[in-house]
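Suppose you are handed a protein chain with no further information: no name, no annotation, nothing but its sequence. What can you learn? This example shows the usual starting point.
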Amino acid sequence: MRAFDYAAPSSVDEALRLTKPGSAFLAGGTTLVDLMKLDVLTPDHVIDVNRLPLNGIRLSDGHLRIGALERMSAVAAHPTVMVHFPVISRALLLSASGQLRNMASIGGNLLQRTRCDYFRDVTAPCNKRQPGSGCPAQTGVNRTHAILGSSSSCAATHASDVAVAFVALEAMVVVRGRGGDRIVPLEDFYLLPGNTPQVENQLGPDELIVEVRVPVSPLARQSTYLKIRDRQSYEFALTSVAVALSLRRGVVLDARIAAGGVGTKPWRLRAVEDALKGNPAMEKTFSDAAESAVDGARPLAQNAFKVTLLKRTIVRALIDVAGVR
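A reasonable first move is to predict its three-dimensional structure. Written in structure tokens, the prediction is:
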């Protein structure tokens, strides 16, 4: 790990004033510190934000409001989240290990970097880490890579589980900069790689996520998160699905669905949602709707299995939420 300057401001304004080229914010450190040890990230200035007043989990103005420094474990176990937003609780509980969930912040989780091995190996080329150097995943080991939203420059998947749940529920992030606050839908906050995979989101270098806001809705109460992975614990998703449903007399009134493990960002599945609405909540409906989930998929040599796996994951999650067989 390279030498760096360290500061621990006590206010958001102070933290923003301290930003300069080569700065990085430190919260739980579960991503940043790992990447600094590998020399993947080499900030000259580390700004510890743990003293900032960015905590709190509450319902207000029709939204669940979560402070960016709330720990993943605290959000997962909060009674309001468990009852009204079970998909969020479940996504968090299926993330990482208990020890890491106790350390990692919600804001940090949303900003975590990809687990692509090429990105994390400084001896390998990677357009995310070194623009213009190439993307070995295109022809190399790519079993865990994206089939949706990729480009010839990058096929790395987004790592966050809870971001998938947040996107399904149409959550927003409150971003604070020196000019004030702005509110950005999380789905729009993340950017596709295109020709600039090193630009992953809309966060400016002198901005900080201060809060996540999730609209309160009947759908959120009837929701779940299903994660398929190579082993039961401490593993990233091959595919995952966040599902929220509104049912009446066995008919789907409304649906919100997003997928993880298959896209370069959390992937909202609007075509699947539209195919479900107004149709009976039954396995055939779910299976027919899931076909549109892979429209535009671009599988690589080793990850074509994700096309079928994603569709099956959607069907299983819908069956679980709807309570049908």
